[in-house]
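Lab channel / #folding
Pinned by the channel admin:
"Please post every new chain as: sequence first, then the structure tokens as a reply. Keep commentary short and put observations after the output so the thread stays searchable."

First post following the new format, from NK:
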Amino acid sequence: MEITQEIKESSTSELLEYICWKEEFPIEAGQSFVEFCLRFDNAVKKRADIACLKWNKTEDVALDVVRCTFRKVWKYPTYNHSKSKANDFDKGVLIWLSRIVYTQLSNFHKNGFCYEPDEETDLSLIYDIDELSERISNSDEERKSLMQLLNKIDMALAPLSEKHKTIFLTYRLYERDGRYIPRSVTKKLREELNLTQGSIRKYKEDALKMIRNYLKPQND
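Reply from TO:
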């Protein structure tokens, strides 16, 4: 999902407000949720990793906890800053997210899961730009426009391995609508690519960095 500049420049308070209007304005809400996740992703992952380490839980559990935390935000974007002890709004949101992390971890500890099972259980990985284009394009015109961007991405990823490309394209498909990548997909990535979840995260970061560096001179 492409995020407009207006959404990128919105305050965290505005993002949460937009998410609240997901029924009336699904596109704006979806973009706002993606931006919210990007803004707090590293901080939430860090807290989930620390909490799981204390609770003797694995890295896979930490990933589930992160996913469940953001799903909770999508369903209930109910942060109330007037009840927070933090003066800064973003710091207050981070405290709120930290509480959700521990709640989700507690759910996992008691129930063995912290999420509602995915309706789709056989979700495929994406190995090349043609597959991605076919999955997310609704018309020939849209596909033509998308392919121009995807061809640039394909060239940017050329120096990296096929694993990098598969990870990036797969995440690009499943995260496009403001969703967190399904658990079954991350499991399939680990098994088919023979990587740990930490390695998958690093491969994704490497791919994003390569794409940004490739596209930056063209946008200047």
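NK: The domain at 5-111 is CATH 1.10.1740 (Rna Polymerase Sigma Factor; Chain: A).
TO: also worth noting, The chain has two domains: 5-111, 129-219.
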